[in-house]
Amino acid sequence: MKCVNSVMYRTDDLRIPGQSICLRTNYDNISNAFISPNLYECSNWIVGLRMNERDLKLAEEVGSHIQANGSSAIYILTTKYTNLVRTNLVLLKAFLDMKTKRGMMITIDRPHQYISHLLQLHGIDQAKLQFIDAISNHASDTKVSPNAEAFESGPFYIETLPDFIMSCDGRDPESKVDMSSTEFILMDNVSTLLTYNTMENVKIFFSRYVGVLKERSSASLATLIVMDRDLHADLYSFISPFAKKIIEISTDMKVGNVVESRSPTSVESTPSANGPAASDRSGSGPQTRERTGEM
Amino acid sequence: MTQNAFPRLESGIPGLDEMIQGGFPFPSVVLVAGSAGAGKTTFAQKFLFEGAEKGEQGLYISTLSEPAQWMLRYVQQFEFAKQEFYGKEVVYYDMGTALRNSTGEQLLQMIDDKVAEIMPQRIVIDPITVVGTMMKDDYRVFAFDLVTRLKNWQAVTLLTGEVRPGELYPAEISYAVDGVVLLMLSDEGDARRKYIEVLKMRGTNHITGKQSVDITTKDGVVVLKARF
Ligand SMILES: Nc1ncnc2c1ncn2[C@@H]1O[C@H](COP(=O)(O)OP(=O)(O)OP(=O)(O)O)[C@@H](O)[C@H]1O
Ligand SMILES: [Mg+2]
User: What ipTM does the predicted assembly reach?
Assistant: First the structure.
C-alpha cells in the first residue's frame, strides 16, 4: 500500500486509459485514498476509496448490534427505500471487512455484477462473498462471476428459492456456490419480490425460508433483511415476528431505535408453508412461548 | 394493487408532483427536454437541492467542458441553491474534457464509477445530447446502454436534452427512458411563454397537455396551478 499525496490529486477523476496510474478519490475523503495493484483492467493501479466516515461509523455500530456467531437469527434493518443500496453496502462492510465473515448475497433488485463492482470500488474484499442471482437471466450483463449461481426461475416463482438455496450445499460439483459454510445471508431486496410475485407467494417464500433455516439449524446463520417498513407495511408486519432484532437506520444513516424481540417466532415453530401467517391472523403477534434454542 | 405501486421521489418542482402521481417513479431515468434557455438546468438543479434538503445524496454530471464555476455562478442566484450542500449532498463532476477523447464504453465506465463512488439517490446528466454530437461511436447504442445501466442504481436520473428548432424531442434517447418531460418556449403575440408537458411517465397516470410555468428566483421552475 502506498499513500497518495492528497493535494496533488485534487481533481475528482484522473482515470486516463493507457496510462499506468488510475486515480479515484472520494469527495470528502481524499486523504484516505490508497493504492493497491492490479485491480482495474484499464490500468496497472487503482486508487480505491475508503467509505466515508459516516457510513463507516454506521457499519461499526450496526455490526455491534448483530452477532453473527453462536446462533441463527433474522435481523431486519428498516430504512427509507432511497437508502436500501447504501445500507446493504454498509452491512457488507461490517460483515466482510470488519467481522471477516463468509456471506451469501441474494440479488433480486439488480444483478450481482453491480454489487461486485460497488464492493471493488469501495475496497471491500469479496473473497468470502458468494451470490445467488435471481435477476441475472433478465439483465443485460450476462457474464456470471465464478462465485455466483443464477437462480433460473427468478425473480418469479420466488417460493421455490429456499429449496434452491438448500440445494447449494456443496455436494453438487457443478454448483459454484456452497451454503454450508455461510455465516450470513443478505437479500437485495425483499421489497422487489413484490414487483414479480403476489403477496401470498412472498409469504410462502418466507415461511419456507424459515423452514430451511430450521433444517440447517446446526450452523449459525445471520439473515439480514433491509426494507422500508412504511412502503411495504403488510410485508413488514408478516416478517417482523420472525426477527430477533429490528434496527432502524435514519435517512442520514444513523442507528435509530433498536427493538430486540424477547421471543421471535422461532424457526422451530414453523410447521407448514403457511405456518406463521396462520398464527399471525389469530392476532397473537410474536410468539410468547419459550424458544427452543436461541435463533 | 397498492403494494406494487412505485415508490416516488418528489421532483422539487412546485406543481409538477401533482401531475405525476406524487413524483418520479423510484428508480427511473427521465429525460427533461427543451429548447435553449427553457429552464432545463434550473429544473435539474432544483431536483438535486430538493433531495439535499431531505438528506439524500445528489450527483450532477456536466458534459460541457466549461468549468462548473460558470454554471454554479448562475445557479447561485436561486434561493434554493444553499451553499452548505455543495460538495456534500450535491456533488459536481465535470465530464466535458473526457468526452472529447473517450469511447462510449469508457464514458459509461466513468459514469458508472462515479455513481458507485457517490452512491446518489438523485443523478443529473446535463446535457446528455452534447454527447451525441461529440462522440464517434453510435450514440443510439450509447444512449440505450447508459439508460440500462442507470436503471440498475437505486436513483432517479434526470438527463437533460436540447431540442433543436423544429424538433419535438431528442428522439435517440426518448425511447429508452422511463419518462419524458418537455420544457418549451412558445410565441404568443409579443410575449414568450414557458410551458411544461409530461409526454410519458411509465407506471404513472399523468396529466397530459401543456401547463404554463414560470421561473422564479425563489423556487426556479414553477408550474402555474391556474391551468388545472
Ligand atoms: N432569477 C430568474 N428569474 C426568472 N427567470 C430566470 C432567472 N434566472 C434565469 N431565468 C430564466 O431561465 C433561463 C435559463 O434557464 P436554464 O439555464 O435552466 O435553461 P436551459 O434550458 O438549461 O438552457 P441551456 O439550453 O442554455 O442549457 C433564462 O433564459 C431565463 O429566462
Ligand atoms: Mg442548461
Answer: 0.75
